[in-house]
Amino acid sequence: MATLHDINRRINSVKSTKQITRTMEMISAAKIRRARERVERTIPYTAGMASTVTGIIDRVGASANPLLRVHDEVKHILIVTVVSDRGLAGGFNGNVLRAAERIMKEKAADGITADVIACGKKAISFWKYRKITPIMEFTDLSADPTMGEAIQLGNYAMEKYVDGTYDEVILVYNHARNAGDQVLRAEYLLPVRRIVFVDTSKAIPNWLAPMSAFVSMVDLNNLQETLATGESAEKEEEETEVSPEVVFEPEQESVLWTLLPAYMRTMFYATLIDSAAGEQGARRNAMKAATDNANEMQTNLTRLYNRVRQGAITTELNEIVGGAAALED
After folding, report:
1. Taking the C-alpha atoms of 128, 182, 31 and 124 in order, what is their torsion angle to the nearest 10 degrees?
2. 241 Rama class: left (phi>0) / alpha (psi -120 to 50) / beta
3. The model's pTM
4. 114 or 326: whose pLDDT is higher?
5. Which residues contact 76 (CB under 8 A, 6 or more apart)?
6. Which ranges of the chain would DSSP assign to H, the alpha helix?
7. Greatest CA separation found in the chain?
């Protein structure tokens, strides 16, 4: 049985750990608000661009730009995984990486090869452990992504899709649905499909939806609710179409050539800051759970300490009484 000294040492160790986890929880909670505000500031611009691009695509057709054209055969794809540089965030990183690995295996079963881009140190170590070398790596930017990172991602994906290196580009990341909840998303970025900008708290009923970036994700948690309420993507499409009265100068094809690259870079940036907000929420949840567990462990250890101490006192009293009785005899 553990001695009083051993139990007391464990109690002090748990207290120290609890202080660390509590501090990390408070730091993440403070960062969440700033991260969420940054996401919310991008939504009007992203929604406006998605609406405009959708309207032009409807008028000029998919053949107007190489980013819209679906390749005749899918042989090689690119998977972009967005995770964090740091751990202690629960299943935030593991869910994304396992989903990307599952997609890769499913594609491989159909004879499709895949390359990966790793955004975050955890993604780099995950792929390299599996003997897969990412073609691009980004580190130390997960908590505070930059537009430069989004531009590099967008330019590379577009260039390789246009020259035929890749037939599809898939993005896997965690969407911060709110301050405390993250939703796994898997989206087709290229070819660009009809864009449906929807409320990110709602769902589109598919796992890997062959639609557009940023809004084509499946929220499996809300799937049944979505189907039950009868909400559909068609309604959202009607709400996001460009008005027929819009006049384009120059012609729509030229405008599309300018807007699509900007749209792709915007989608990457929106994804990066969305993942950054989700990271802080996931870390806060994980640290809160760790703090609660530490409190419970400390309570249990304190009770054990008191029982052992009471037993030791009782034993000492019995020894004293026994010694006194022996002297009287």
Report:
1. 0
2. beta
3. 0.76
4. 114
5. 112, 113, 114, 115, 165, 166, 167
6. 4-60, 92-109, 121-129, 147-162, 223-229, 233-240, 252-328
7. 116
In our burial notation (b when 16+ CB lie closer than 10 A, e otherwise), range 207-230 reads: ebbebbbbbbbbbeebeeebeeee
d(CA 19, CA 235): 50
Strand order in the sheet with 168-178: 136-138, 113-119, 76-82, 168-178, 181-190
pLDDT, position 161:
93
Cα separation values, 148 from 101, 141, 153, 155, 269, Å:
27, 11, 9, 11, 9
With contact defined as beta carbons under 8 Å apart, do 168 and 77 qualify? yes
The pairing of beta strand 136-138 with beta strand 113-119: parallel
For residue 297, the model assigns a pLDDT of: 93
Q: Tens digit of pLDDT for each residue in 210-232?
A: 333 333 333 333 333 433 444 44
List of long-range contacts for 224-228, beta carbons under 8 Å, 24+ apart: 226/202
- Interior angle at CA 307, CA 301 and CA 312, nearest 5: 125
Does residue 129 register a pLDDT over 70? yes
Q: Point out the least confidently predicted range of 27-36, 174-183, 194-203, 305-314.
A: 194-203
